[in-house]
Amino acid sequence: MKLRRLNLSNDVPTSFSCISRSSTAFNERENSEPIPHDLIYELLLRLPAKSIARSRCLSKLWASILRSHDFTELFLTRSSTRQKLLFFCLKDHDFFFFTAPKNPDNNSSLVVPDYHMKFPFVGIGFQICGHVRGLVCLTHLRTVKGGKHTVPEICNPSTGQSLPLPKVKTRRRVNVRRFFAYDPIGKQFKVLSMTWPCYRSYLLCQEYKVLTIGTGKLSWRMVECSVPHQPISGEICINGCLYYYSMVDSVEHRYVIVCFDVTSEKLTSIRKPMEDVKCIVSNLVNYNGNLATLTSDGDSQVIGQNLRTALIELWVLADAEKHEWSKHIYELPSLLPPNFLPKKTYYFIGISGGNEIVMSPRHSSSLFYVFYYNFERGIIRKVEILGTDAFKHRTINTFLHHVEDVKLM
């Protein structure tokens, strides 16, 4: 499978050049000792991901170090302790990726994001399939074997790579939904694909297929499903389990949360927190490693313009087998400075640090903010993301818990 890479400049960071020159000169001296690998790793781990991507071109020696499993795993581990916000935007037939600190200092109100990569987008059929461990999976229209098909593609904003995946072989006129997940036991990324007829949207899925990435030849294979359903939205992957909302009965209008165990590839279902809740789906979030849902005033996935009167319901899954949830209700602060909250529709992004609900608008204007609501202290703060003027009136998707992964796909 052919990889696409972002064109990187040939310049090498000054710090890396110094390491190379000094280590070479030092090692050429008679009776000298080589620089320990631990020290080299420590120096290289301080470089930004972009610099590491460029520095692989310096020499075969440094390429072998920077591509080694030990180094890339250590870099990912350290990156996990300084997670970021990932911003994704589509403009003028290009996908753009930016990152910013996930938890800026409480005194910081302005953040300049780092630009990472862009790659071309053609036609229709765009869909975000998931964001896991520094990688993003999406679909768009691409030429495959002489024809135009909507197919998935994996992107790594840290390295500038993208990996096109094979098309799912299906019957004509079917709907296709794909989800991206990670198996922490087998250390493998997987894509779950489901299809159902276009002409009967109320029908449940007829085929369930899985593709495992990193096993040589990429090919889709059938898996069994004991919970016939039709996926809707709201996917999230937590500790090797992929969760998403699904319809299981179109006559009685029954909806559940489906759980796909990424390791065993088994599908089970979990009843929603409230069977009589007005909204079909709510926002699935990661709350301290547990599945949770967020709703505003019990009947919406978003918070409307009047944030001063909004009530937020947080449901945390206590026992999946017993379908037990715990309920928590929070009220946004009523005493806020004038014009603190621009009149927009705000979307739940997730929960950061265990006690902050993160919200942001989905469409950029002259100003773009991310809001952090600390429900334990009852404090809300806003951070302005600078440089979004170029994406005015465009949709900006925001993801929490982004880590930088410098492994080459």
TrEMBL record:
It comes from the Eukaryota. SUPFAM superfamilies: F-box domain. Residues 35-75 form the F-box domain. This is (rape) hypothetical protein. The lineage of its organism: Eukaryota, Viridiplantae, Streptophyta, Embryophyta, Tracheophyta.
